């Protein structure tokens, strides 16, 4: 790769995440490259394209031969992306198995007494983290800053620390860190904590996540803790909260663009100006509370018949991890529920739930954010949730209502949303009624306050804060060791 020979710059930043912001799909003659879904890719993606960082990760496909590997590598190389190629077994065991069937449910408080802790999943989790290490050590220079992301790579900071002892390593977790009573269920909990402690600075979305991590580290590793600073193997490690933001400017610009205005006109033509629109956008995931949201909407139609024919739920579910059995099952349940609600309530010229199971380009999402009277972001548990912030950023007229789950990291910042407990279906129905009847002045009061937060704490701000804190930790370590 050209990066290994790049000597023009003394040091660079290397981002590492399981998935690259670009996804490779096999098509009949060759490959197609599309954008990846999820908060990590959209959030960090804007930063990567504006900066000269390098991004290492999996291109989202099992590549069968060296020629394909070379083609994909050279396409990605032009975009400062470096692939880590994974085999089909790696994907089954490390990605679908350990990451998405063991860590994901536990970290989202979805622990099942029947959880299947497969030893082979763990073996692959270790070997794939090692594969990532091999690529990083090929690309990294001694003065580079290495920034590892998310739960698929919890062992990588530790592996990096052994391979490159003096390096600067940051780690950011995009999903919640659970209470110790859940985390301790994982058979390999101590190894995971030791892996994370290879970093100099560990970032989480909320203070609760930090607290839970510190708790687990204190119980499972030989650390000395003082406030949010740990000493591990003679090295100072800091854990702090850095709530991630969005590229606010981009959503403002989109909202004012002609192409988005055109899309808004299309949406209005279908839903009419009079009919009220509730928007829901998620990746397919049981942590997102999609079924509970449908239940709340159905309860509204049942208990408040005046809204039949007057309110529509525009629901986008973006396909994700549909090879994991739990996700496939969820998809079927959603399909059935939507079918039932529509069959029961629809009229000749009104459909209660406009349901889409596919990704949409950002211009169409922007138009939906602009058209929706209410945006419902009601996950059962979510690290941050950037959809809530995108809705707020898009509301250039300073109206609209955000209904937000208390269990999303964003609820710690967007305190002027209507906050709900997504397990309380009746309270979600009540929140919809409150939203539908909220006076414009009150909508504006809340929206202005939320927009201040979103406009100030952008993704660029988040990154700068994390990076400067990481540099500070490094300095503190040096001054401690030379004392
Ligand atoms: O933002 C959280 C996250 O889990 C990322 O780590 C991940 O890339 C994204 O959601 C989407 O999931 P996946 O990469 O499994 O499609």
From TrEMBL:
Transmembrane parts of this sequence: none
GO molecular function: alpha,alpha-trehalose-phosphate synthase (UDP-forming) activity; trehalose-phosphatase activity
Signal peptide range in chain numbering: none
Domain of life: Bacteria
A biological process term (GO) from this entry: trehalose biosynthetic process
Family: In the C-terminal section; belongs to the trehalose phosphatase family. Belongs to the glycosyltransferase 20 family.
Full protein name: Trehalose 6-phosphate synthase /trehalose 6-phosphatase
């Amino acid at each position: 790769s050209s990066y290994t020979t790049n000597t023009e710059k003394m040091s660079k930043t290397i981002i590492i995440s399981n998935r690259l912001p670009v996804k490779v799909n096999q098509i009949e003659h060759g490959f197609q490259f599309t954008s990846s879904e999820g908060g990590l890719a959209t959030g960090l993606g804007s930063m990567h394209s504006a900066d000269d960082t390098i991004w290492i990760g999996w291109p989202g496909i099992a590549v069968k031969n060296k020629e394909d590997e070379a083609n994909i590598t050279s396409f990605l190389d032009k975009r400062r992306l470096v692939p880590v190629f994974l085999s089909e077994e790696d994907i089954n065991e490390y990605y679908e198995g350990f990451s998405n069937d063991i860590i994901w449910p536990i970290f989202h408080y979805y622990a099942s007494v029947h959880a299947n802790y497969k030893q082979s999943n763990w073996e692959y989790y270790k070997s794939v983290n090692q594969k990532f290490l091999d690529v990083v050590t090929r690309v990294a220079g001694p003065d580079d800053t290495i920034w590892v992301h998310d739960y698929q790579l919890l062992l990588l900071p530790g592996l990096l620390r052994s391979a490159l002892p003096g390096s600067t390593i940051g780690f950011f977790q995009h999903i919640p860190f659970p209470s110790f009573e859940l985390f301790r269920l994982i058979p390999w909990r101590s190894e995971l904590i030791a892996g994370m402690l290879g970093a100099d600075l560990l970032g989480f979305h909320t203070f609760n996540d930090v607290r839970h991590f510190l708790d687990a580290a204190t119980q499972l590793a030989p650390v000395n803790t003082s406030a949010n600073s740990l000493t591990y193997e003679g090295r100072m490690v800091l854990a702090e909260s850095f709530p991630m933001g969005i590229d606010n400017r981009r959503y403002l610009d989109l909202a004012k663009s002609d192409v988005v205005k055109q899309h808004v006109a299309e949406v209005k033509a279908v839903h009419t100006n009079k009919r009220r629109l509730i928007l829901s956008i998620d990746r397919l995931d049981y942590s997102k509370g999609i079924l509970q949201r449908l239940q709340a909407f159905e309860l509204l139609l049942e208990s408040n018949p005046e809204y039949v024919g007057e309110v529509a739920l525009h629901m986008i579910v973006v396909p994700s991890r549909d090879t994991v059995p739990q996700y496939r099952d969820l998809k079927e349940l959603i399909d059935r529920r939507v079918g039932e609600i529509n069959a029961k309530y629809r009229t000749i010229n009104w459909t209660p739930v406009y349901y889409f199971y596919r990704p949409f380009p950002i211009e169409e999402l922007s138009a939906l954010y602009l058209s929706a009277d209410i945006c419902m972001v009601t996950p059962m548990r979510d690290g941050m949730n950037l959809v809530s912030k995108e809705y707020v950023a898009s509301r250039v007229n300073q109206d609209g209502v955000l209904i937000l789950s208390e269990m999303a990291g964003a609820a710690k910042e967007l305190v002027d949303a209507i906050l709900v407990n997504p397990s309380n279906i009746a309270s979600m129905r009540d929140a919809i009624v409150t939203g539908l009847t909220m006076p414009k002045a009150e909508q504006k009061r809340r929206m202005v306050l939320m927009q201040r937060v979103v406009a100030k704490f952008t993704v660029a701000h988040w990154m700068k804060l994390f990076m400067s804190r990481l540099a500070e930790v490094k300095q503190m370590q040096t001054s401690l060791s030379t004392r």
